[in-house]
Amino acid sequence: MPDKNLMEKIVSLAKRRGFVFPGSEIYGGLAGTFDYGPLGVVLKENVERLWLRMFRDSRDDMYGVDAAILMNSKIWIASGHVEGFQDPLVECKKCHHRFRADQVDLSRCPDCGGDFGEVQQFNMMFKTFAGATSDSGSVVYLRPETAGGIFANFKNVVDSLHPKLPFGIAQIGKAFRNEIAPRDFIFRLRELSQMEVEYFVNPSGWEQAFEEWRKAMHLFAEAIGLPSDSVHELEVPDTDRAHYSKRTIDFEFDYPFGRKELWGLAYRTDFDLDAHQKGSGVNLEYQDEETKEKFIPHVIEPSFGVDRTLLAILASAYREDTMGEETRTYLAFAPKIAPVKAMVSPLLKNKPELVAKAREVRKELQKVHSAIAWDDNGNIGKRYRRQDEIGTPFCITIDFDTLGETPNLKDTVTLRHRDTGEQERLTVPEIANRIRTAIE
Ligand SMILES: [Zn+2]
User: Fold this and answer.
1) Digit-coded pLDDT (tens) for 225-246
2) Under-70 pLDDT residues of the chain
3) How many A from CA of 114 to the centre of ligand 1?
4) The domain 340-439 is classified under which CATH number: 3.30.470.10, 2.60.210.10, 3.40.50.800, 3.20.20.80?
5) Which of 116, 212, 304, 376 is an S-S bond match for 90, by CB 3.0 to 4.6 Å?
6) Which residues in 323-354 are b (16+ Cβ under 10 Å) and which e?
7) Distance 93 CA to ligand 1 centre (A)
């Protein structure tokens, strides 16, 4: 059920607490762009790091690249983007406002009631010029997807590291799409980040690889804290699939504005490498060492939009409840992606012995993870609420019992849990263990 109110609350909290800001805001903004603030950038990095760890670093069959955003335009001719990466566009004859033809009632303009002209195809790639000339020979595009940089480096990776099939190349980076109608906060952007894998297989092994990636994508959803009942597989029917794809699954998520695409998993056959072999004139065949058979590998492509993943995380984590007769808002982030892992606080900031002990505790916990915040501002309840709102899983308070006022509690501190507000009394090494376990 779409929940407009929830969307507004998420956008407002994201701005208020420094997760996501509108792009170029002091100049009135730029549609389809958003900037990540101090907490948002850490959340984004945590998600990307987890993805790299799961899909690149912990596997022997995966390699990374970081390709240039600007690429020889021939790559986008070969991939079909120059010809076909387009959306249908209509313009109102009266007010000249432009709309995506598949998102508007074509009988009349929603803004002024005027008539529309013919539907035209609008290419979504951003075009610019490399060098001091601006003729057709110097045209370059901001890449519309990161995959191009992976295919262009397939031969380099094979020649330098000699991987055996099946193997994959992973990349995280920016991509650009000149959307006619950017919308829904960080869901549909003109500048976005992608996490993509091209997994190269012998054609006889595509089904097994596809199934393994399907499962791996669900594991990633679980790892970043998306509830399994909010992630849905949509088997894309033949008629809607790209002509070269033999099977595609859209992973959809229940956003506050409805069920929409989150990630994609596609079996792309040998379409890409074959197109780049033809386009470049360079042989992109792979030779099997044992059978000596030469062929163009087939590709399984799991593709993840970073920004819409972050939106799914924010939407899943957003909670309101009543605590101490007050309404509180908190973000129930999975500890491993939470931007701040714990906050350490002296009960009173004007008692030097409490402050000194709290500093010592913080330093100790920072051996587990560097993202341990400090807050000695205002009363303790307010400090907890501030951390709840940014999704900090643990708050640790140092009080007079820590210093030995109650002898049997000496060197213990209060650990307060974000989701329940429950508190327990533990030693610092015990707390270090709790944090370590939670973020593993
Ligand atoms: Zn109009």
Assistant:
1) 999 999 999 999 988 888 888 9
2) 1-2
3) 5
4) 3.40.50.800
5) 116
6) eeeeebebbebbbbbbbbbbbbbbbeeebeeb
7) 7
